[in-house]
Amino acid sequence: MRKLAAHYIFSIVAEPVRNGIITLSDEGEILHISQGSGNLQEEEGVEFYSGVLVPGFVNAHCHLELSHLKNQIAKGTGLPQFFRKIVGLRDKFSPGQILQAAALADAQMHAGGTSVVADISNTGTTFLLKKNSKIRYHTFIEKLCWREEDLSATVQSAKDLVHEAHAIGIPATPAPHAPYSCLPELLQALSSMAGAGGLMSVHHQEAPGEKEMFAGRGGALQDLYVAAGMTSVPDGSRTSTQYLTGYLPRDLRILLIHNTLCTEPDYEVAAAYWKNLSWVLCPSSNRYIENRLPPVEMLRKKKANIAIGTDSLSSNTGLQVVDELKVLQQNFPYISLQECLTWATLNGAKALGVDAQFGSFEVGKQPGVVLLEKLNLQQLSLTPTTTSTRLL
Ligand SMILES: [Zn+2]
Predict the structure, then answer these.
(1) pLDDT in tens, 122-177
(2) What is the DSSP string of 78-120?
(3) How remote is the CA of residue 257 from the centroid of ligand 1, in Å?
(4) Order of strands across the sheet that contains 199-204
(5) Ion ligand 1: residues, CB < 5 A
(6) 22 alpha carbon – ligand 1 mean position (Å)
(7) 19 C-alpha to center of ligand 1: Å?
(8) 141 has which bridge partners?
(9) What's the count of helices (H) and strands (E) in the chain, helices before strands?
(10) How far is the CA of 1 from the centre of ligand 1 (A)?
(11) Exposure pattern of 194-207 as b/e (b: 16+ CB <10 Å)?
């Protein structure tokens, strides 16, 4: 048994407890949370930490297998140019280099307090790494296809990879990349593989080019795909959100990723259609690629289930969830630490259906314990130097 104490404990499901003590079993199961009296720093059997204790983070969007692309792509290029760079770098790294970078990223995420990751895989490179990790992963087998002639091979490859993941013993479901890169038939095929109530994620409203393309105005993103063989381009009759609701079933448990350009009407289309819907924000990546931030205020107003992702090291300088929260608190200082932390823990756990074990300090859960240091404890806010470290 361990007793951990700090200036504050954020259980997430209740108000922060000042001078809180959290009692855990040797296995890390939460047994009790209480408010201490007297000087906890000198209380026998209590480990006191200066700062705030929070449950392990849930990173709701990552691409572990792109970890070797750290510092390889310039900031602020916009999405079409970003994709060109990714494709250009594809054959420059050996499988060993890719795996080594992914292993380092996995270890750093765990040490920084991430307990659960929803991770995109386009290949099986990181499957074994994820199986053996201390982090709980859900793997999204991501596919994209914009040419009819590639469809059956793409669907077969998704089936093969899901099979391979399950054979290794890691949870995995198929996921389309984005509305602009997936034929209707691919959306339908991946949906039927996911099955009723299946977990799926899709990049959504992430760049101006996506809006332009679906408005029938062409643009740089469409030019990229036409140059790569796309023959059927959107006719302007529906938005990218309406395209997704047209082909993905409403009983999916779905994570919409980025949403940088998502407007209130777009939100309404998605929210009226999917009942089990989460909005994953990756603010550092949005700033890196597009120099934009997602519509945080609109999503809050709508009481959306907001979760937090880091995206990959190809468009971020690190994979620590706390760094995403710092960006949000710097730009939206009126959002409380409690609310930010809820997005980064319980909301992500709910999005992935793992909230029985993760996402909050509640008796019986085993979410992991993370120490946040160098906060502003008077205002209970993050500072630019706040760090996160796993204690358990
Ligand atoms: Zn992504």
Answers:
(1) 999 999 999 999 999 999 999 999 999 999 999 999 999 999 999 999 999 999 99
(2) -HHHHHHHHHHTTTSS-HHHHHHHHHHHHHHHHHTTEEEEEEE
(3) 7
(4) 199-204, 253-258, 276-281, 306-308
(5) 311
(6) 35
(7) 39
(8) 121, 174
(9) 14, 14
(10) 39
(11) beeebbbbbbbbbb
pLDDT digits (tens, 9 = 90+) for 244-274: 999 999 999 999 999 999 999 999 999 999 9
Pinpoint the residues of the chain covered by CATH 2.30.40.10. Answer: 2-53+378-390
The domain 57-319 is placed in CATH, from the list 3.40.630.30, 3.30.2420.10, 3.40.1180.10, 3.20.20.140, at 3.20.20.140
User: What is the third-level CATH fold of 2-53+378-390?
Assistant: Urease, subunit C; domain 1 (2.30.40)
How many angstroms does the Cα of residue 147 sit away from the middle of ligand 1? Answer: 21
Mean pLDDT of 104-110: 98
143 Cα: distance to centroid of ligand 1 (angstroms): 12
With contact defined as beta carbons under 8 Å apart, do 259 and 295 qualify?
A: yes
64 C-alpha to ligand 1 centroid (Å)? 10
Q: Does residue 351 contact residue 309 with C-beta atoms inside 8 Å?
A: no
Confidence of residue 38 (pLDDT cuts 50, 70, 90): confident
* Angle between helix 240-247 and helix 184-194 axes, rounded to 10 deg: 50
pTM greater than 0.90 (yes/no): yes
